[in-house]
Amino acid sequence: MRAASTAPAADQADFNHLTYSLPDLVCFAHLHWDFVWQRPQHLLSRFAQHGRVYYVEDAFYHPDDLVEPHMEVKERQNGVKVLVVHLPQHLRADEAAADEAQFAVLTRFFTDNSIKQYVFWYYTPMALGKSRLFSPVLTVYDCMDELAQFKFAPPELRQREQELFGKADLVFTGGQRIYESKREQHDDAHAFPSSIDKAHFGQARDPKLAEPADQASIPHPRIGFFGVIDERLDIDLLGQLATNHPEWQFVIIGPVVKIDPATLPHNANIHY
Fold first, then answer.
1. CA-CA distance, 115 to 200, in Å (whole number)?
2. CA quadruple 113, 85, 173, 141: dihedral sign
3. Which of 20, 147, 189, 238 could form a disulfide with 183 if both were Cys (CB 3.0 to 4.6 A apart)?
């Protein structure tokens, strides 16, 4: 197993006064930990201050069949262990066999690390294939998005979500609209809206803070967006606003995912 160096600790904020310990928490997610810092990282890096936290990413498929299934371990903020199962290429075309291989690797990892009493925390129902045979003491489904509505969503995702509802003890939702839908499908669902890291972004209001070099020449007023740029962003509306208000400057920061960058509006007052 390979472990990367530990990254800087996350903001401990309101958690310093807590003295209890959490049971081992194993999270199954569709998002890479090192991609964009968002809801899973905010929560789990804080949970890790009070117990062992394992973040299971989607499997990594090698371009050949020269490897045996094995676990890669990377250490991140506050000791969060990011787990990536490596699989040979031929398993990519056989989901059942890939899930079986991942279950075996995870089982061995649990045994080697004395993970006996654990909570499962799901961000994607698709992870049930590799995890449904485990016996967690508590199962949480943190539904941060309507994944079934995303581009390239697996057709079986809705069916897997229904299975997860049957296993989950608690369901959280990342917004009120999702809650209105999920509360009809689980009797212990709770609205848990996503927000921002106020302490982090508040630093930008410091008058002593130098303006980023790549934004210094952009006039004011500015309208900013920070986050993933994908099919959820109304690019037609963005283009219309930029056309109708040339005096406004739109500063868009974030990776472009699942959409063609060529489809984005490129008005002179839009800055990516």
1. 33
2. negative
3. 189
DSSP 184-235: TT-TTEEE------HHHHGGGG-TTSPPPTTTTT--SSEEEEES-BSTTS-H
- The pLDDT tens digits of the residues spanning 159-174 come to 999 999 999 999 999 9
Radius of gyration of the chain (CA): 21
Q: Report the Cα 241 to chain-centroid distance in Å.
A: 30
119 neighbors 138 (Cβ within 8 angstroms):
yes
CATH topology of domain 13-191: Rossmann fold (3.40.50)
The β-bridge relationship of strands 170-173 and 70-75 is unpaired
> Domain limits of the chain?
13-191, 210-271
Helix (H, G, I), strand (E, B) or coil at 189: strand
Three-class DSSP category at 102: helix
- Name beta bridge partners: 194: none
Identity of the residue numbered 255: P
Task: Could you list the beta-strand ranges (E) of 78-188.
Answer: 81-87, 118-122, 138-143, 170-173
Pairing relation of β-strands 81-87 and 70-75? antiparallel
Phi, psi of 235 (to 5 degrees): -70, -25
CA distance 238 to 267: 10
CA distances from 145 to 125, 191, 246 (A): 12, 12, 33
